[in-house]
Design goal:
The protein is mainly beta. It has 7 helices and 36 strands. The protein has 3 domains: 192 residues, Immunoglobulin-like (Sandwich), CATH 2.60.40; 87 residues, Sandwich (Immunoglobulin-like); 191 residues. Helices cover 10% and strands 40% of the residues. The strands form 11 sheets. A 5-stranded mixed sheet has the order 5-8-3-1-12, with no helix packed on it. Strands 4, 6, 7, 10 and 11 form a 5-stranded antiparallel sheet that branches. Bound molecules: calcium ion (4 copies).
Length: 503
């Protein structure tokens, strides 16, 4: 290590240190150099040499400058030293940095640089006032810049002193030259911690893909919870995370929206480390063009406990939605439910209705918004076997025809016990003359029938129902119901099964 260029330089090596006379304002370089590095033993001032990086983080291949800063601190009442030169001996880590562009004297400093020696890992240079003596007129100054390029394989996380003053050079290596004043104490402040990093962060985004229905009550889209982000980096514990939102193909800024529109949107998440390495993770959010409906149905009356569940076919109508679903009815509660039915997107629904197509009258109700879904509950009164939404003598007729082991459709078997018996007649009896509630108003048709002639039934192709004319008077009416209550239907024999009329 060339610890003191001033004492080894041919211009300076033969000169003994001394304080330059104030009267000699024009000096040779050698004379100025000779003026350096002297002073009394009493250090009134402190001169701090600092190495200041242009950035505290850089990527391999990037340039990074280190400014050599000189600061003078003089106690109150003391006279500041007149500094007319300085020399520096600096080491740097050649595994991380390459001196590229060398050493540059500050353009605002009225001094010159003695040609530096820069073997790999070492930088030795001196700055001198020349040819005129111009003492440093500032308490602090950036005096030189060291230009480095970060090595291709550099990897240093918050590493201090990648560039440092050469302590081995001692005062002979890092010192100032004086025109006057006491020799100051020299303090050396190395390069602070710098990160040299070429490794991009990682970023976990959970969930990465989101598919949700449109929120109930919204025709725009759905509120979606922000994802859980898990950033990680080899150096940077506090990564910069940004997002770029595209809402169904339209730029949506950087903020997570309160709602995503119907369609497919993306959010690009970018995690960037201090050195500028970054990773981009794209999250996809799809809002489906439907809303969800939860339905609960309850059947008043009593179901058979012989089965764990009873399966019923229930038709649900709400707006343009119209579908028949199998519903498992728990006999202990007489209730069942359907969840997450896909209904058309609407700002609101004012009515929904339901009907067990083989057993019950329809019921209508006002759907509520619960969370992000619609929910509605129905009470399904049984007794409508022909699905005309009335409970009347026609249903009684089917009951008579169906009496005995229930057919596969379960028609007339309201309590689900496998047989059509008096227990099922109770449903017709309790709900007799009732009609269903539909969202469109009253049930269609001519209303419940108090009586129907056997002739009419036959003309309509329902001659098999004539079996319900229990008293044989050509009519099916309350007289036959009274006859049934008194005598039952034990003598009825009619294997032909009639068809419902549709609701
Ligand atoms: Ca990194
Ligand atoms: Ca009916
Ligand atoms: Ca039954
Ligand atoms: Ca009759």
């Amino acid at each position: 290590m060339n610890s003191s260029i001033l004492t080894s330089n041919p211009l300076t090596h033969a000169l003994a240190p001394r304080v330059v006379s104030r009267g000699a304002r024009m000096l040779s370089l050698a004379a100025i150099a000779a003026a350096c590095f002297v002073g009394s033993a009493e250090a009134a001032s402190t001169v701090t040499f600092s190495l200041v990086p242009s950035d505290t983080a850089a990527k391999p291949g990037e340039l990074i400058d280190v400014v050599v800063h000189l600061g003078v601190s003089t106690p109150i009442g003391e006279t500041a030293p007149e500094i007319i030169g300085a020399q520096f001996a600096v080491n740097y880590d050649t595994t991380q940095l390459t001196l590229e562009g060398g050493v540059e004297i500050s353009p605002t400093l009225p001094w010159i640089m003695i040609p530096e020696a820069t073997p790999a890992g070492e930088i030795v240079f001196a700055l001198l006032s020349f040819p005129t003596i111009e003492p440093l007129d500032r308490a602090s100054a950036d005096v030189a810049t060291l230009h480095f390029r970060v090595n291709a394989g550099a990897s240093a996380c918050a590493t201090p002193a990648l560039v440092s003053f050469d302590l081995a050079a001692g005062l002979a290596g890092n010192n100032v030259g004086l025109l006057s004043g006491d020799a100051p104490a020299i303090a050396l402040s190395n390069l602070p911690a710098v990160t040299l990093d070429g490794i991009a962060p990682t970023l976990g985004v959970v969930p990465l893909t989101i598919t949700v229905p449109t929120d109930a009550g919204s025709t725009y889209g759905a509120a979606v919870a922000e994802p859980s982000l898990t950033p990680a980096d080899n150096c940077d514990a506090n990564l910069d995370i940004t997002s770029t939102v595209t809402l169904a193909g339209i730029p949506g800024g950087s903020a997570w929206p309160t709602q995503f529109p119907i369609g497919t949107s993306t959010v690009q998440w970018t995690a960037t480390d201090d050195s500028g390495n970054f990773v981009v993770v794209t999250q996809t959010i799809t809002v489906e063009p439907y809303q969800l409906l939860d339905v609960s149905v309850h059947f008043p009356g009593e179901f058979s406990r012989q089965a764990e569940f009873h399966n019923r076919w229930v038709r649900i109508k709400m707006g343009a939605y119209d579908a028949v679903h199998a519903v498992e009815i728990d006999p202990s509660t007489q209730a069942g439910s359907l969840t997450d039915l896909h209904v058309p997107v609407a700002a609101s629904y004012s009515c929904a209705c339901a009907k067990d197509t083989t057993h019950s009258l329809s019921d209508s109700a006002l759907p509520a918004i619960v969370g992000t879904e619609y929910a509605v509950s129905f009470e399904l009164l049984q007794g409508d076997s022909n699905n005309d939404d009335f409970v009347d003598v026609i249903d009684f007729s089917y009951y008579v025809v169906d009496f005995g082991p229930a057919n596969a459709s379960g028609r007339s078997n309201f309590n689900g016990d496998g047989n059509v018996t008096n227990a099922d007649f109770a449903f017709i009896s309790i709900n007799f003359w009732k009609q269903g509630e539909t969202c469109g108003g009253a049930a269609t048709g001519n209303g419940p029938r108090a009586r129907v002639s056997v002739k009419e039934l036959r003309r309509a192709g329902n001659g098999q129902l004539a079996a319900a004319d229990l008293n044989g008077d050509g009519w099916i009416d309350v007289q036959d119901i009274a006859h049934y209550l008194e005598h039952g239907v034990a003598t009825v024999k009619n294997p032909e099964k009639a068809r419902g009329q549709g609701w």
